[in-house]
Amino acid sequence: MCLGIPGKVIDIRDEAGLPMGRVDFGGVRKDACLAYLPETRVGDYVIVHVGFAISRLDEEEALRTLEILGEMGVMEPELMTMGPGMDVPAVVSDDTP
Known about the structure:
The chain has 97 residues and is of the alpha+beta class. The protein contains 2 helices and 5 strands, in the order E-E-E-E-E-H-H. Strands 3-2-1-4-5 form a 5-stranded antiparallel beta sheet. A hairpin with a 2-residue loop joins strand 4 and strand 5 (52-57). The longest helix has 14 residues, at 59-72.
């Protein structure tokens, strides 16, 4: 199964002519190529699939998607809880195993 995960772009830079971004997935930060979405700005939410940002979405939809993925049990716990300073609520509830 292929899965694109929403994350928040926290940094953008150029690497060898390619726009690259550091994306925060609830405290887990990974690099992603932004070549398919050159209009992306810091603070935007993007869907990342195999290292490429493939679409942008608003914060509400990103958090809703993370919540649904968490309920389905397909997310690692560290990807389901937003990190400190992210000013968005945690997706994991206290009764999560």
